[in-house]
Amino acid sequence: MISSESELHVEELEALLRDQGFHRVAFLSTNGLPRRLAEHPQISVLGQGTFLIAALSCYPREQDDASAPGDPHALIAPFARRNYYGEAVSRLKTVVRILCRDHGLSKQALRIFCNSRLPEKPLARLSGLGSFGKNTLILIPGLGSLFVIAGLFLPFPVTGITDYPRPSGDLPPTGPDVRFDLCGSCRACQDICPVGALPEAGRLDEKRCLQALCTETVPFSEAFRRAWGFRFYGCQSCQEVCPHNRALSLETQTNLGVLGPSLSLKRLLSLSFLELKEVVRRSALDRSWIPPRTLLRNALVAAGNRRDQVLLNFVARHRSSDDELVREAAEWAVQRIECGHD
């Protein structure tokens, strides 16, 4: 057994993550981090060490809508159809066990992160894992933007990464001098956004973004309700039109938290808050910051936009809800279904 962490090499770590199915791997030393990134509270508390940053594909080769006649569905964005975040963490735990076994490391010394409070996208960009796109997401050739970021923090240096960190890209892209290496003159993501949440390349208006709003406990405006379309969770309009997301082939096989591409609106609108929470248990939607009432609100708005008479009674039962957010969405959806046209 090797007892010195200083004998860890980039090649060994990269091979470990490749063996666990991660599609891209990069490394970043805390030495020489740009000041604003080094002073980030979630980074400064870690001290000196090495970030191991990886990408796991969340591209699904499947239909986007499983609706059938008489059974309209609400749609789920690809990244949330399975618990890719949980899958990435599970695979990293295997890496940690191997490192502890072979190098005598303490499990408590190695921090796993995925969908965390760390500035994961800036770290990924700075490590060279990928480049910022104009929609503020990280782009990687061969993976596009359809992947989750995950990694480990090792509280010591790793041999073989003397050329890190990269010289630029420590912060989210803003300002006229930002380079979008993989975007060129393309502005498809900006033009397609149904609510104009990308007013400038690399600047996301989170107060308008449907993805950001889908878990907020505030009513949608009329414009946002119509723009919501048939969604249940997530908006990927800017990713659907991205040229880098075409002809993808790398997939991640996982049975963790499988929801599928869409869920039956009849079923969703028949559930209580507790029952809805149970449906999404262990999925990517099973988070403390995703209130079931917002998911029900989302389903009601999707039902209103479906305008299928088969949903009318399922929607109408929520007009008497004790929850104002749900009650208001139900009232709107009933009017949409009964009207049948704009």
When the domains are counted, the total is 2
Mean pLDDT equals: 92
First-to-last CA distance: 70 Å
Shape: elongated
Write structural notes for this entry.
By secondary structure, the chain is of the alpha+beta class. It has 2 domains: 5-59 and 82-154, Threonyl-tRNA Synthetase, Chain A, domain 2, CATH 3.30.980; 188-339, no CATH class. Helix content is 33%, strand content 12%. The chain contains 14 helices and 9 strands. The chain has helices spanning 10-19, 35-38, 41-44, 84-103, 120-127, 188-192, 210-213, 222-228, 237-240, 265-268, 273-279, 292-306, 312-316, 324-339, and strands spanning 24-29, 50-57, 73-76, 111-114, 131-132, 138-139, 147-154, 231-233, 262-264. It has a 4-stranded antiparallel sheet, with helices on both faces. Helix 11 packs across helix 12 (292-306) and helix 12 runs parallel beside helix 14. The chain is elongated, with a radius of gyration of 22 Å. It starts with 9 loop residues before the first helix and ends with a helix.
Short description:
With 342 residues, the chain is an alpha+beta fold. The protein has helices at 10-19, 35-38, 41-44, 84-103, 120-127, 188-192, 210-213, 222-228, 237-240, 265-268, 273-279, 292-306, 312-316, 324-339, and strands at 24-29, 50-57, 73-76, 111-114, 131-132, 138-139, 147-154, 231-233, 262-264. It starts with 9 loop residues before the first helix and ends with a helix.
